[in-house]
Amino acid sequence: MHNVKVKYGQQPFDFNEGVMSFMSPKQVFSVTAEKKEEQVKKSGRAIYVHPDFIWNTSLAKTIKDYDFWDYSLNEALFLSLKEEALVNNIIQNISKEVKSNIDKYTKQIIVSQIEGLLSYSDRFYGRQFITREKSNHQILERLEYRLDNYFGDDNLINKGLPTVRFIAEEMQLSPKYLTGLLQSLTGQSTQQHIHNKLIEKAKEKLSTSQLTVSEISYSLGFEHIQSFSKLFKTKTNLSPNEFRRSFN
Fold first, then answer.
1. What is the pLDDT of residue 236?
2. 82 and 173 assigned to the same domain
3. How far apart are the C-alpha atoms of 190 and 196, rounded to whole Å?
4. Radius of gyration, CA atoms only, the chain
5. 153 and 122, same structural domain?
């Protein structure tokens, strides 16, 4: 594409070199020409796959397993020159196959190329989680800050426990991207980080206050003390009361 602005949904996409993103079905995609004074030569490739094309193939069973379909625009994949060349090669192979005479092997070959593209993209995202170390660790710091603020609120009885989606949206990230990033950095999901912070706060209250276990449970956003006690024991191998007695 040359001299265009692209919108995915309601958001403009910044087409820098080596950027790759994935568009889920039924998303709105638009292309408009730039004004002459703003024109800068840009190019890109796009692959559109009709759901019927992959019906009854191996890809139909696995395509939803790739988390990046639910990533936001600001979580696009930034390709190295080597990765970009590999992706372009796969796309060219698909293009050649589409333009060739159709035979009984055409669909199978195209599907296998798409599967390869998705598998490489999964690998590249794994690399990106590692190589963008500074920005990723800043996200980890922001997560800790958000969780500290959330569990430091005296109104948790009304707010309840934070969900993965709520925390991700507070950080302006998609839930699956945040979990993928955290698992790469720490080996734990967003839900596990929420639980770890919750147990940390519970330990603090159990060891420094005279609140009952029931009061602590409600103060941390639990509706039922049984749920709190079960989670606490799962994480610490002690019941809340056993943990409290260990300080006496």
1. 93
2. no
3. 10
4. 24
5. no
